[in-house]
Every structure is written in structure tokens, then in C-alpha cells.
Specification:
By secondary structure, this protein is α+β, with helices and mostly antiparallel strands. It is built from 7 helices and 23 strands.
């Protein structure tokens, strides 16, 4: 009997342990599902990284002046003063002394070189540069950009560019005139043509506060974003400064690991709020309505006036053996038709779908719809901003 009791106790303990393991597994699964749903947001939410950016994490523009050589007679004319002076100065740096007035070449073009220095770019990284002619060069195809320092707005050099220019187009002409041109051969790109020589100091990992800037400032969106961050971190660290700025104080457990905090925040789902707006393009007849557009109860009548004029010639022949002559008389027929459409009652819509169905019931074209929206705005029945582009 004692052995039987021990066996039963052992079986009960195994059963309880089994139940406990199942419970823990269910809790972990539910917790994972909750975190996944929370991080991804609801169906209509977008990621914070798509509607906001971190202050200070941005690109910086670089610019420089350089020369493109190796052109097949399509460069600047040899009477272009600043290009000749640039060539003389370049040759002098190479140890060749030459007078500017002695230089005659149409294989060189003066260009401006532009680039964008990405955030967190490190020394030795490469970026693309764009080369644009500033003289009277005809074509940069086949040219080589010589070593060109690229400066930022503070005047300091952050990169140097050099390499073959790719225009992505061409220009050909015949001796008798005329020709064919594709794209703009006076503008080209040097892929990976700039080598970064200096970094922009950003001590991102030691920040104590992250500031997020909304791409489209809105008080409601900013409040929703702060609430989502506070709920995700289970502490009140985010607050809105204004309609575009959300400040996030870095919690103690993320000090020195700001990247992990930024990763969590930028993947949170937030539903952005937008103003009610109707955008109209009269040139193409395009009408775009926002989700929150509403129309007050109003009666609409829209008819078209059609005028058609037909011209014909009537020929009058004289009787045989008479002294009459053939006479041609014009005949005009004018037909006027006016569409007599009754007044159509449009009820106040509670959703964009009902507004669209009500307007479609009028059976109007997009261009007629533009006129209707303008009239609704003038009547005060359109509860949205009307923008014409």
C-alpha cells in the first residue's frame, strides 16, 4: 500500500508539473502575440520611422569645383576665361608652368560637383557624386573628373571626388545640321566617385534625449506617438514639445545603448491624423479626397449646355431652256440642347464611401466634379480644405 501511495503521489506531481509547463508556454505565446501586435500597430498604423526622423540624423550637402578632361572636342570653348585659368592653375600645381593665353583645348570642361554626405558616414566610405557643366560644353560623355575637394557649408573639406563620368545619354549631329539627343549629356554621375576624408562627429550612443521630428506636423499625431512610446517602454519618458517635436528621455536601462532604444521606437505603429482636404488638378481632371472629407446636406443640380451648328449649301437649278442661272444658297441649322437634370439631394455623409456614392449618383465626369466641388466650397457645404494644383 505504501508503494502504491508513493506511485500515486509521484504521478500527481508529474501531472502538476506538466500543467505548469503548459501554462507557462501559453503565457509566453500570448505575451509574444501581444508584443507583436503592439509593435506592429493596428491595420491602419504606420511605423514611426516612416513619419518622423531623429533630430541631428540627416544628410549634409557637399559641393566643389573641378575639371572634366578627356572629352572628344565637346568641352568648353578655348576662349572661356575661368576654364583656361583653372587649367593653368592645375598644371602649375603639377609642376608645369604655362601661360593662360597659350592654352587652346576643347577637351576640358569646367564643372560643379555635388554630393550628399549621409549620416554616420565613416572615413574611407564612398558616395556618388553628380557632375554638372557650368560652361558651354556640349557633352561630358567619356570624360574623367579630376581630383576635386568637396566642401560643406562650413567651408571644410569632407570628401574628394575623382573618376569616369557616366552621362546616361548621348548627343550626335551631322555635318549638314540636325541631330539626336537623349537625356542631358551636360550632366553626369560618378558612381562611388567620392572618398570620405572627414567624419561629422555624432556621439549618438551617449545621448540622454532623443528628439523626433514629424515630417508633417500635427498635434494629434504627435500625441499618439508619445502615447505609443510610453506604452511600449512602460514608463512616461516621451512628451510632446509642439506639433512636430517629441522628446524622449532615454531610460537608465538604455544608457549607452541608444541604438537599441531607437530600433524599438522607430518600429512602433502609430495612426497619423490628417486634415480634411480635396486636391484638384484641373489640367488632368484628377480629384483626390482625404478620408475625413464631409459634405453637409445640400441639393445639387448640374446640367450641360450643348450647341451644335450645321452649315449646308443648297443648289437651285433653273428650268430647261430658261434664262435663269444656277444659284447656291447657304443654309444654317442651329441645335441647342440643355441637360435638364433635377435637383439631387446629397445627404450629409459620415464616411468617404458615402460621399463618393452620393457624388457618383449624379453621373458626372471628373471635370464636372471639379466644378461641383468648387461650388460646394463657395456654398460652405464642403467641410474640407480645397486645394487646386
Amino acid at each position: 500500500m505504501a508503494i502504491l501511495k508513493v506511485d500515486r503521489m509521484y504521478s500527481n506531481m508529474k501531472y502538476l508539473n506538466y500543467i505548469s509547463v503548459i501554462k507557462r508556454a501559453i503565457i509566453q505565446v500570448l505575451l509574444g502575440i501581444f508584443i507583436l501586435i503592439f509593435l506592429s500597430g493596428n491595420t491602419y498604423a504606420v511605423r514611426i520611422k516612416d513619419i518622423a526622423s531623429i533630430k541631428g540624423v540627416r544628410q549634409n550637402q557637399l559641393v566643389g569645383y573641378g575639371l572634366v578632361v578627356g572629352l572628344n572636342g565637346t568641352g568648353d570653348d578655348d576662349d572661356l576665361a575661368f576654364m583656361i585659368q583653372s587649367m593653368a592653375a592645375m598644371l602649375e600645381k603639377m609642376g608645369v608652368t604655362v601661360k593662360a593665353e597659350d592654352i587652346e583645348s576643347e577637351n576640358v570642361a569646367a564643372v560643379m560637383v555635388t554630393a550628399e554626405l549621409p549620416p554616420f558616414a565613416r572615413v574611407g566610405s564612398r558616395i556618388d557624386v553628380i557632375v554638372s557643366s557650368i560652361g558651354d560644353a556640349e557633352n561630358l560623355q567619356g570624360g574623367i573628373l579630376l581630383l576635386t575637394p568637396l566642401k560643406a557649408a562650413n567651408g571644410q573639406i569632407y570628401a574628394v571626388a575623382q573618376g569616369p563620368v557616366s552621362t546616361g545619354g548621348f548627343e550626335t549631329s551631322g555635318a549638314a545640321g540636325g541631330g539626336v539627343q537623349k537625356n542631358f549629356p551636360t550632366v553626369g554621375r560618378v558612381p562611388n566617385g567620392a572618398l570620405i576624408e572627414k567624419e561629422i562627429a555624432i556621439d549618438f550612443d551617449q545621448k540622454k534625449t532623443l528628439t523626433f521630428i514629424l515630417h508633417h506636423p500635427d498635434f494629434t499625431t504627435a500625441s499618439r506617438m508619445a502615447q505609443a512610446i510610453n506604452m511600449a517602454l512602460n514608463t512616461k519618458v516621451a512628451h510632446t514639445q509642439d506639433a512636430a517635436t517629441i522628446n524622449v528621455k532615454i531610460p537608465e536601462n538604455f544608457r549607452g545603448n541608444t541604438v537599441a532604444l531607437a530600433t524599438i521606437i522607430e518600429n512602433l505603429g502609430v495612426t497619423p491624423d490628417t486634415v480634411s482636404k480635396v486636391v484638384i488638378n484641373e489640367r488632368t481632371g484628377t480629384v483626390i479626397m482625404g478620408e475625413n472629407v464631409r459634405i453637409s446636406t445640400v441639393a445639387i443640380a448640374h446640367g450641360n449646355l450643348s450647341i451644335q451648328v450645321k452649315e449646308s449649301q443648297n443648289v437651285s437649278q433653273p428650268l430647261p431652256f430658261s434664262e435663269g442661272v444656277t444659284t447656291v444658297t447657304p443654309d444654317s441649322e442651329i441645335l441647342v440642347e440643355e441637360g435638364n437634370k433635377p435637383l439631387f439631394l446629397v445627404e450629409s455623409g459620415v464616411s468617404i464611401g458615402e460621399v463618393v456614392r452620393a457624388l457618383n449618383a449624379l453621373g458626372v465626369s471628373p471635370r464636372d466634379l471639379i466644378a461641383i466641388f468648387q461650388a460646394l466650397k463657395a456654398a460652405g457645404a464642403l467641410q474640407a480644405e480645397l486645394e487646386i494644383i
